[in-house]
Amino acid sequence: xxxxxxxxxxxxxxxxxxxxxxxxxxxxxxxxxxxxxxxxxxxxxxxxxxxxxxxxxxxxxxxxxxxxxxxxxxxxxxxxxxxxxxxxxxxxxxxxxxxxxxxxxxxxxxxxxxxxxxxxxxxxxxxxxxxxxxxxxxxxxxxxxxxxxxxxxxxxxxxxxxxxxxxxxxxxxx
Amino acid sequence: xxxxxxxxxxxxxxxxxxxxxxxxxxxxxxxxxxxxxxxxxxxxxxxxxxxxxxxxxxxxxxxxxxxxxxxxxxxxxxxxxxxxxxxxxxxxxxxxxxxxxxxxxxxxxxxxxxxxxxxxxxxxxxxxxxxxxxxxxxxxxxxxxxxxxxxxxxxxxxxxxxxxxxxxxxxxxxxxxxxxxxxxxxxxxxxxxxxxxxxxxxxxxxxxxxxxxxxxxxxxxxxxxxxxxxxxxxxxxxxxxxxxxxxxxxxxxxxxxxxxxxxxxxxxxxxxxxxxxxxxxxxxxxxxxxxxxxxxxxxxxxxxxxxxxxxxxxxxxxxxxxxxxxxxxxxxxxxxxxxxxxxxxxxxxxxxxxxxxxxxxxxxxxxxxxxxxxxxxxxxxxxxxxxxxxxxxxxxxxxxxxxxxxxxxxxxxxxxxxxxxxxxxxxxxxxxxxxxxxxxxxxxxxxxxxxxxxxxxxxxxxxxxxxxxxxxxxxxxxxxxxxxxxxxxxxxxxxxxxxxxxxxxxxxxxxxxxxxxxxxxxxxxxxxxxxxxxxxxxxxxxxxxxxxxxxxxxxxxxxxxxxxxxxxxxxxxxxxxxxxxxxxxxxxxxxxxxxxxxxxxxxxxxxxxxxxxxxxxxxxxxxxxxxxxxxxxxxxxxxxxxxxxxxxxxxxxxxxxxxxxxxxxxxxxxxxxxxxxxxxxxxxxxxxxxxxxxxxxxxxxxxxxxxxxxxxxxxxxxxxxxxxxxxxxxxxxxxxxxxxxxxxxxxxxxxxxxxxxxxxxxxxxxxxxxxxxxxxxxxxxxxxxxxxxxxxxx
Amino acid sequence: xxxxxxxxxxxxxxxxxxxxxxxxxxxxxxxxxxxxxxxxxxxxxxxxxxxxxxxxxxxxxxxxxxxxxxxxxxxxxxxxxxxxxxxxxxxxxxxxxxxxxxxxxxxxxxxxxxxxxxxxxxxxxxxxxxxxxxxxxxxxxxxxxxxxxxxxxxxxxxxxxxxxxxxxxxxxxxxxxxxxxxxxxxxxxxxxxxxxxxxxxxxxxxxxxxxxxxxxxxxxxxxxxxxx
Lengths: 174, 794, 228
Prior knowledge:
The complex is a heterotrimer. Chain A is mainly alpha-helical. Chain A has helices at about 5-10, 20-30, 35-50, 75-85, 95-105, 110-135, 140-165, 165-174, and strands at about 15, 55-60, 65-70. Chain A has 2 domains: about 5-85, Winged helix-like DNA-binding domain superfamily/Winged helix DNA-binding domain (Arc Repressor Mutant, subunit A, Orthogonal Bundle); about 95-175. Chain A has 8 helices and 3 strands; from the N terminus they run H-E-H-H-E-E-H-H-H-H-H. In chain A, about 20% of the residues are buried. By secondary structure, chain B is α+β, with helices and mostly antiparallel strands. In chain B, helix 2 runs antiparallel to helix 16, helix 4 packs antiparallel against helix 11 (about 420-450) and helix 16 (about 665-700) runs parallel beside helix 19. The longest helix of chain B is centred in the first third of the chain and has 42 residues, at about 35-75. Chain C has a domain at about 10-95 and about 160-225: 3-Layer(aba) Sandwich (Rossmann fold), CATH 3.40.50. Chain C has a 6-stranded mixed beta sheet with strand order 6-7-8-3-9-10, sandwiched between helices. In chain C, strands 2-1-4-5 form a 4-stranded antiparallel beta sheet, with helices on one face. In chain C, strand 7 (about 165-170), helix 6 and strand 8 form a beta-alpha-beta unit. In chain C, helix 3 (about 100-110) packs across helix 4 (about 115-130). Chains A and C meet through helix 6 and helix 7 of A and helix 7 of C.
């Protein structure tokens, strides 16, 4: 995820202090991984250098001085371009799991056990996400669902692979 | 397959479009996989049953006609003048008897020469003391119970009567040979067998009964066929929706549906014909209300058979198109408008009203000159009953929508009926029409039956059998009477020896013949049955006045007077003048008493004497009558008495006393209606059962789910019962009121009042019994469908 | 070994339809208040296991214990009575009586237990509210959407306060959103009443609503690791 573009997008609704930016980011997108202040300021300095934001004013107070950032026209254009650009779908063509299964088969280990173990782990995570989804708000639900659907896809793959292990073993060893 | 390359607008409804769509429907029905075949088979079986019945009904005229022809062919030819003996004549005497309730028809034959006429079905006349007999009679004689009949037929079995000489396979008939029979000792000389009697025109009332009967019995069959054509229709409709999806318009799908029904109906026609042809081979083994028929007699009248063959497929198409009128087959499913739209009463009511109007238009059917128009009466009755069938769905809807509450089975049943009252009504429309018609018919029947019931005046509580002895020999008479007295099961014999007595001496002024009177000799017990004798002992004589009022007392007094002399000799004959008088003086002690009707309902009068007072040997040509009283509870006492009579003379007949006799036409009409009613009821039961089982089959999965819930079997069984019982009770109520209305209209036409409730109640009762039977029979399939296997995903 | 305190427990269940075995020595147990997902490829014997556990069918061999009862020894009448009082059922489709209204459908099991009509319908209405479908109470099943119908079915399964709810692909005929809602409501309601839920499903996201999962393969039920 592009933190720079996200922060720019947040600024589009109005100038903010660095601290406000972090809070807003965490609230909407940071459920899994909140931003450090360091990340915010290093990103802002890069954006300043590229002329996508400008300092709107400095507030002196009891604590450290606080800069207010505002988005520039170039910044708005940049956000628009980023949003319009489709994300490249992740094909997962060479996943770790696949590698593990093939290796297990090649070395004569029990690949079914490996798959079952992975399956259990996936479902455990899915149970946790489901639990969190049920107690959370709409944003939580959407985020969890995104993960759940991906995990479900993995799980389906696990089931399918488990059902085809014999064929795969033959192909790998042959 | 036709390679249609050009897309054509599916609008044209010409004959070609019809043919194309009907053919497509037929292909669907024939190639619809297992489910399609099951449905076609059900329809074919249902229609087939109906067709079998219709063909049987169409055979009735042939059957009755053939039976009449053969019955007339075996009767001795009637002649106006005595026939002189020749090599081509024979002497014949009837040997009528009966075994239990079956009549046994025999003829005693003695040929006059070498070439006597042969009765039909007989290749050679039996010689003296030989007989030819029907297969049924031979079977009876060889059976254990036939032992009672054997003494009456002491002849040697020398041959069989062929079918040409028998009315039906169950006919008990024989011809016995005699060496001594002459016209003088009871015989009758004939030149040929066979009589032709002009058919009696059927009485207008009976004709009306017959017409109404046909309508009443065939309407339910028609309804049944209409129902059978719709077997599995709901599932079929859903399948047709798929046709709409690929571009068929509504009319095309309807015609395709009609094509499917047509295929089922054609299969049904085939099944029915086969069933009929196979079934009639068993006609000689099945007794239907006393009728056993030769298979060859069960042949449909050609134009009636053609009518059946044409009407059934046409009806199938028409019924399907009509039924689909309320069903919208849309590309994405089937929409039944029945649920939303309420059934209207206004267009249904005119049907029964018009029916009654047609009936009344025919006018009265009483009196000998009135007529019964088949179209007015038949059409009226048919319209009325059709109206009843049309009112039923409305009545079911109107009633069921007001029902609610109650225990679970009731709730399930009521809600189901609210959703699909039409199906329920269709299932019971057959029984409603049948019961309504039967009530009307029974009312008419019971009201007119007194017209066809003759009171004989006989009193079967005083004596049960009656026999007239052919012999005039007093010794034989005495022997016969004592033989009857000693017969097993005989409690008493009222035996009289009768002759006449006249006043001796020359004729008086104004007389053309000597006044005469009856003489009756019998013991006190016998005389007490014939006159109010008061105290009586052997040696008493009575002068009996005719209480019946036919003969004046003064005329009797001219001969029978205490103290008068009478002459028993008969002087009126050609040799009468020179006869020696047989004089006897009436004792002065003779008391004058009133006569009393004997058990035969006849009055005797004149001189009554006990054997101690008058020796019967003095009488000329005495005649003996015996009325036999049987001991109640002795099985086959009648047969023993008949055997006794036959032992004395084969020509002596023993008849049972009957309080009433029915008119023959009336009896045969009643028999025919009875036969048909039984078959119709059975058909209705079959139809209801099929409908019920089909309903259950459609709900198999739901039933399994309910079982998973732990629903008790009894709960579902009760719900099935209620679901059947509610429309049936409604149907019976409608049938009762409709039947009474139609019956009263018919009674009015017959000019008879008098509503006989006792003939009305058995019919709803029979209907209710039918429901019980249907419910019971549908329980095993219900149990089967309640198995959890239904939960497994297909 | 018998897991201590289990509510429903099956041992070595075998059941064959014709020559093909549907269950071939399956074990299973569930605790009060627990939601257990039964997963596995189609035709693996999931539904047969559920039917045996619920006493709808009797296995060819093996035992099913429920509290003090051995279901496999009880007569059909007794098992039916138990299903009425202690068990609730949700199926994939075709389960609502089409001619009864939704309210009457929910009240039906209560009435089968002998509850009077008024009381049963009152309670049924409560449950329709809890499953957020009280607005369709007076409608017939044919007039409502699949999701609503399934929620009505859940209300019907839970209304008699069963100790075990058997759900056979309860979301199988629904889209994901409706499926999620139905599952959420079902597991919430089951937890609120302390009912155990046996949940047969082939969808991992639905199985994720369970506390643990059991996989049936070739007629044998396997407890997945990490459940203990």
